[in-house]
């Protein structure tokens, strides 16, 4: 676990580059520091391996103040990957990867074995690549070697400062996917810096949005998208973003909470009047009216009402009881699938038997128009 406690950095005593920053990163978490250029991401990251020392505050790794650890020892246990990989041009791929393990005098056979294992892990055939020089590799391959080198000494922590930002979009996406796969196997604690919110959303277990040396919000990607803590974050994240990641939209985000309910002992005449008064097309039937937490017994819509000519017929005798429902957390994609497959016009969102809201064509449309920026053609 990495803990930054009230950490500040200033060079001239005036401008706070990092401003009383608090951040806790759990073991095995991949967290992303994201923010505009100059907001203090690199500075924050470099304080974790003491390439920069804080002006005030404290950083702990597994409860230990890093100022009490020899910086060289500290860095041996913290992998570091930067944008310009910084491979040594006069060393081969194998020598580059084995650099730190050699420095700490690991057994040469073990280093070789580990190097081969790492090359396989990053999908470069070791027999083809181990003796090449960095200049004989593409940018993406160099960056992969950079990642392998950071992993070579099997550190608990890896710091990555815009490691993929100089790559073309396709290579970049490949490396992002590889990193996610690696992380699933290795379960390292990773601090990843980027100024690209898409990359942050894709990679981060959690995202720390930085602004002027402070953390403006620290949360899971879904929460950053759905409940940005400030206008700054909302703008930074960008409108319409949620729609680009529709997996994150769930039934509870698109339901209309303002539904109307009716007691099952009431009559058709009541229902017709209620629907006219509230200007709605469907009513949720409960065993007694007026209590929102009451269990849903069924639904009535225009179809049920028009089939019965007796105005005094009771709702319980005409309501639809085999109503298909979804949970609040059901993804939008699944809701849309059910809606198409079963030709549903209204889908109640139900939790513990009670209705939280209703999804209809209108509620879906409302959400879509809210989240799709006007400028976007649709
Ligand atoms: N040695 C230094 N002396 C004075 N100011 C510095 C020094 N190093 C960095 N800064 C300033 O600190 C601020 C934060 O820099 P930092 O490199 O942490 O930003 P960043 O968020 O990583 O930005 P980018 O996205 O451009 O990499 C910048 O305004 C920078 O000019
Ligand atoms: Mg930076």
Q: Helical region count?
A: 18
CATH superfamily of the largest domain: P-loop containing nucleotide triphosphate hydrolases
CATH-scheme architecture of the largest domain: 3-Layer(aba) Sandwich
**What percentage of the residues does DSSP assign to strands (E)?**
15-25%
Structural class: alpha/beta
CATH class category label of the largest domain: Alpha Beta
The largest sheet has its strands arranged as: 6-7-8-3-9-10
User: Which small-molecule species are bound to the chains here?
Assistant: adenosine-5'-triphosphate, magnesium ion
Give the termini distance in whole angstroms: 45 Å
Oligomeric category: single chain
Strand segment count:
15
Shape: elongated
Q: How would you state the average pLDDT, rounded?
A: 88
Q: How many individual domains? A: 2
Largest sheet: 6 strands, mixed
- Rg, Cα atoms, Å: 28 Å
**Could you name the CATH topology of the largest domain?**
Rossmann fold
Helix content, binned percent: 25-40%
Low-pLDDT sequence parts = 374-378
Q: What features would you describe in this structure?
A:
- The chain has 378 residues and is an alpha/beta fold.
- It has 2 domains: 239 residues, Rossmann fold (3-Layer(aba) Sandwich), CATH 3.40.50; 118 residues, CBS-domain (Roll).
- It is built from 18 helices and 15 strands.
- A 6-stranded mixed sheet has the order 6-7-8-3-9-10, with helices on both faces. Strands 2-1-4-5 form a 4-stranded antiparallel sheet, with helices on one face. Strands 11-12-13 form a 3-stranded mixed sheet.
- Helix 14 links the parallel strand 11 and strand 12.
- Helix 5 packs across helix 7.
- The chain is elongated.
- The site of adenosine-5'-triphosphate has 11 residues, from helix 1.
